[in-house]
Write a structure and sequence with these properties.
Blueprint: H1 4-12, H2 14-30, E1 51-52, H3 66-87, H4 90-94, H5 103-114, E2 118-135, E3 138-154, E4 157-160, E5 167-176, E6 179-185
Antiparallel strand pairs: 1-2, 2-3, 3-4, 3-5, 5-6
Helix pairs in contact: 2-5
Length: 186
């Protein structure tokens, strides 16, 4: 019979992967980032780059400006991504991205599933958010965030993933069939 510590060793190796999870997801997306993520031009229905921290966002149900609306879209997307990872649903994860934008995130989830792992209670902490442009059906955002929590689970063994470092990215979210999807990250 293995000791409790011996059973945990394979999961502890995931700590490094937990740190790389958001970075790897973004790295694959960076390869497909289109040139249209430049600052908005005069023809766009652009808003000034307001920045908000999550604590400064208005409460749900209140009239909100573009930053608060963008924060709500991003929060909903992050929650859907966490749910796809918790269920181990490659199909649900793919639906969160436009075209092939999330290929690296999907590959990473598949590699976790191949090892019999799920990631539960994944939470992304948004530290800063700027709206670069907004048009009907499209948001261009500058987001600084980090993986704040998550637990790798295999056969009842649970290992908390470490927080990662804050990363700033440019995101382009588009509405496809009424659902927000990430089209590009750089």
């Amino acid at each position: 019979m293995q000791s409790r510590h011996a059973r945990r060793r394979p999961v502890r190796g995931l700590l490094v992967l937990g740190l790389l999870l958001p970075v790897a997801a973004a790295a694959g997306l960076l390869l497909r980032a289109p040139a249209n993520l430049d600052p908005p031009d005069d023809t766009a229905d652009a808003v000034s780059p307001d920045v908000v921290s999550p604590a400064a966002a208005p409460a749900a149900g209140t009239v909100a400006g573009p930053v608060a609306r963008a924060a709500a879209v991003l929060r909903s997307w992050d929650e859907a991504r966490a749910a796809a990872w918790a269920r181990g649903s490659v199909r649900a994860l793919r639906r969160l991205y436009a075209e092939r934008a999330g290929a690296s995130d999907v590959r990473l989830l598949e590699s976790y599933l191949d090892r019999g792992l799920r990631v539960e209670r994944m939470r992304t902490q948004v530290l800063a958010l700027a709206v670069l442009a907004h048009r009907p059906g499209e948001w261009r955002l500058r987001v600084t965030d980090r993986l704040a929590s998550g637990t790798a689970v295999r056969a009842g063994d649970r290992q908390r993933l470490p927080r990662d470092q804050a990363t700033t990215r440019m995101l382009c979210l588009v509405s496809v069939d009424g659902a927000w999807r990430i089209a590009a990250v750089r």
